[in-house]
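Translate structure to sequence.
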């Protein structure tokens, strides 16, 4: 299994930003809906990434869903966008992926790790999505 698939699945379950806000400068039609100019639209990524209409078993951690790439991972090719989409995509996306892969490669060469038994799963949002009580891990030199 590729590291990219694991990172994609982590970002699907826990996107860095739970909601994207966009200001609509001009009247726009999305399907049958007309969005007037001057309206701020919120795109709840967290809800989209957990929606049964787009994902099979969305609560399940399953990196294999990205086996055929991002566009075929869900029932809709644009149901996954943890870094935004189109012309407004985060310019640091590629750097973030490269940095994460390099850090993991370095750490896994020398250490193994697992979550501490004291870990409490409680994601919260304050600008970004993060663990409310931190994520204590136990690290062992290999």
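Result:
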């Amino acid at each position: 299994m590729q590291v990219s698939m694991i990172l994609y699945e982590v970002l699907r379950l826990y996107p860095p930003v739970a909601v994207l806000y966009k200001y609509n400068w001009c009247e726009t039609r999305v399907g049958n809906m007309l969005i007037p100019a001057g309206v701020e639209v919120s795109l709840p990524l967290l809800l989209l990434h957990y929606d049964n209409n787009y994902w099979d078993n969305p609560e399940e951690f399953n990196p294999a869903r990205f086996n055929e790439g991002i566009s075929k991972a869900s029932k809709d090719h644009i149901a996954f966008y943890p870094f935004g989409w189109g012309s407004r995509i985060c310019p640091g996306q590629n750097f973030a992926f490269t940095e994460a892969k390099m850090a993991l490669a370095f750490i896994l060469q020398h250490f193994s790790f697992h979550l501490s038994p004291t870990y409490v799963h409680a994601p919260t949002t304050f600008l970004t999505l993060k663990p409310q009580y931190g994520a204590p891990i136990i690290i062992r030199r290999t």
